[in-house]
């Protein structure tokens, strides 16, 4: 009887060790994925800020060029119309431009080994 109890005890200890290892592996994997996700979000935010600054100064330069022919107020209206047009395109194609790339990134991140 004692031999069977030792075998059961050893088997139970192995199961507990395997479960602990699986939990630790899941924690490390989650930490790795979360780190990659937060790094990507941080780089995206930095890129967004830099591109926004670039677009701001480029817009001012384009307005100055357009203003020589149309006047400053109309140049700003033209630039505003361009950005409204761009916003309309982004809204119209939001699934292809925004939703699908984010969904692909998240699914690749969490479901591919």
Automatic annotation (TrEMBL):
Give TM regions.
Answer: 34-61, 73-93
- What are the UniProt keywords, alphabetically? Membrane, Transmembrane, Transmembrane helix
Q: What is this protein called?
A: Phage holin family protein
